[in-house]
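Per reviewer request, we include the raw input and output of the structure prediction for the construct analysed in the revised manuscript.
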Amino acid sequence: MKRFLFIAFMLLSTFVFAQQRPHYSQYFQNYDIINPAVTGMYRAVNVKMGFRNQWLGVKDAPKTGYLTVHTPLNLDGSILTAGSADYGIEEPYTRSDKDSYMSSDNHHGIGFTALNDETGPINRTTLNLTYAYHLMLGDLANLSFGLGAGVSRIGLNTDVLMFEDPNDPVVTTGQIINWTPDINLGIYLYGSQFFVGASMQQVLKTKLNFNDLTDQGAGVPHYFVTGGYRFFIGEDVSVIPSLMLKYVDPLPKALDVNLKVAFRNNFWIGSSYRKKDAVAFLVGFTVNKMFDVGYAYDSSISSIKTINTGSHEFVLGIKF
């Protein structure tokens, strides 16, 4: 009996770790966070910062923060300059932009991703360097291949846990740390009005061990498929439906269906439906094509809706 609480918690941890990557409602504002093939896609040094506070009202609910930075490179390896305007694309804001759109010349992209996700006593920090090669497919499309590689630090803080017998030798106090390698792969096809991508996060299946007795779980691959299309209504207004399919074995497949309406991309509103989980409402704006801010509010539709008041997510972007 004295070891029951500890073992029960570890079994719970095994379930939790079946889906180790956090969820995002505004991933289409920053595809870098799920697909390394987007690295270096835009004609700028692109910086994104995001924060998600999930299930307000639930103690120890997930909190996630991240930073991504990426830039295109010339084929000789130098960072984007004013004289290399053919490397990377600019997102079309109007129908005229779409009509004059040109795909990017072949180029490289490099970037960096930092992610911190905390749920109760479990904390995960991931640091990745990302790389992508963008291949020109005629004048209107590009195909990119991406790789992210780094490390994950997964910690369990036993000081905040309560055990029947804290002096039991099976119980370790303080922070228990796991360091594991982290590799992500992706492919992305994009043009002036469409995008289709697929990615695999946490490619390596790694064991998680929070004491010296047994393995309590394993890091498992996460699979993502995304796609969307931009329809122009008049010169300045566009409508972008999109979807994301996510699969993590042994959990059921998760499907997000999204709709975004933008005015010159200076201001946009949208909504998202996550099957059997939540409905999200989104809004954002862009200033001088340099700064963009996005906000999402998620309202749960699953059984957890009775014990939380929703989730909030913010994204801030800067293009240099």
